[in-house]
Amino acid sequence: MERSFLEKSSDIELRLLIEAIYLKYSYDFRDYSGASVKRRVAHALRQFECATISALQERVLHDPAAFMQLLQFLTIPVSEMFRDPSHFLAIRQEVVPLLKTYPSIKIWIAGCSTGEEVYSMAILLREEGLLERTIIYATDINPASLDKAKQGIFSLENVRAYTANYQQAGGQRSFADYYTAAYDHAIFDKTLRENVTFADHSLATDSVFSETQLISCRNVLIYFNKKLQDRAFGLFHESLCHRGFLVLGSKETLDFSAYNKHFEPLVKQERIYRKS
Amino acid sequence: MNDAAANPMCGIEAIVVGASAGGVEALLSIFGDLPQAFGLPIIAVLHLPDERRSQLAEVFARRLQIPVREGQDKEVIQPGTLYFASPGYHLSVEHDRSLSLSQEDRVHHSRPAIDYLFASAGDVYGKRLLAILLTGANQDGAQGLAHVKQSGGITIVQDPDEARIAVMPRAALALHTPDHILTLSRIASLLASLESSPC
């Protein structure tokens, strides 16, 4: 690509920081979308009260605890239960009947963040009588998010919004059946996660760990550049069984990917694909 | 032929536009005269109440001669196309001239945010960017526009005396001095003349 101007110092510093993080901690943000990473580092600079990215780099290189703090800025824990209810309704109507033909099911929720997608999927599977014969792998790169996901405790205020989502998503019971309210929190039924394995896994650096029938990776890939998206699609393709399902976030698409031909849309509007 | 330096508009590679309250009418009036063969990409953030499916692209496609779409994640930016940010997502330009979406925190209570788009486009296009900020009732876009100016781009603010809601233009003017303060009809003729101006 032609560059008609010299790189700005801050852009050089940003690249060096991302490289330093990779070399020191093996977290690979080198192929994340540039504009988003730049904004998040700028935000971190203010919180860390560092004048320059170089100063932040010095801190995180010499202080692993500071790096773990920075990691909370570099990952985006924005999630909801039954986010985009029509997506979950389509899974219930179009995917579940096919999943029911498998004697046992493995599902990978890649980039599960704080667990909202995991509990949504587990609730859906329980109502469809599939949870007992399903193993869910819930993976993320952020250990703090995984810890929160394992606890299954969400703010009651958010759970009110999730309740509306759940109902629109074809929920068959009262959403309150799945949690116990305690003060301003909702503690979700721990039997929902009996068959869930939470694990540290990076779509940027790790490889496939199991054959799966369904992979859900929602609002994760938008933070990757095209090259890293293709790496992730490659992992999903390798992990999925013959005719396995891939479900994405509502604005994510295979249209611009090298893997476009390797999947076919089942419900395109809801970003539900099948391995070709 | 004029020297390129004499007309800063001739190196323009892309246009970004931000608007909020009153923005639909304002955008229709500045894009209404663009010919089908218009050659520059236009990327726009218009604040709207959160809806899962926006009709914005359809509405504008029916009224304009140029193609109009919701910008999709990792889509390579095409010349002569108007892209709108999707409701609920920030939209940015990447160095390979593709679009990216993000669900990071709201900026000035907005997602999509004008600041988010303008800052990224300023980084990518530098002096080859034209940024336009129109009517609106909040402060979004002011910082982004100042960033575009710092990156060498050309900035235009709608004349606050004409704007349906002047808060957004005035916030921008309080932060930096744009290259032009123009009425909608002047912005429209400037856009329509962009490609025919001698370079």
TrEMBL record, chain A:
InterPro entries assigned: Bact_Chemotaxis_MeTrfase, CheR_C, CheR_MeTrfase, CheR_N, SAM-dependent_MTases_sf
Example GO molecular function: S-adenosylmethionine-dependent methyltransferase activity
Highest taxon in the source lineage: Bacteria
EC numbers for this chain: 2.1.1.-
Gene3D superfamilies linked: Vaccinia Virus protein VP39 (3.40.50.150)
Pfam assignment, any one: CheR_N
The entry's keywords: Methyltransferase, Transferase
Domain CheR-type methyltransferase: 10-264
GO annotation, biological process: methylation
Protein name stated in the entry: Methyltransferase Cher3
Gene, per the UniProt record: cheR3
Automatic annotation (TrEMBL), chain B:
A GO BP annotation: chemotaxis
Keywords, comma-separated and alphabetical: Chemotaxis, Hydrolase
GO CC term (a single one): cytoplasm
Record GO terms (molecular function): phosphorelay response regulator activity; protein-glutamate methylesterase activity
Annotated catalytic residues: 20, 47, 140
Keyword tRNA processing: no
Cross-referenced Pfam families: CheB_methylest
Enzyme class, spelled out: hydrolase
Name of protein: protein-glutamate methylesterase
Organism for this UniProt entry: Pseudomonas veronii
SUPFAM superfamilies: Methylesterase CheB, C-terminal domain
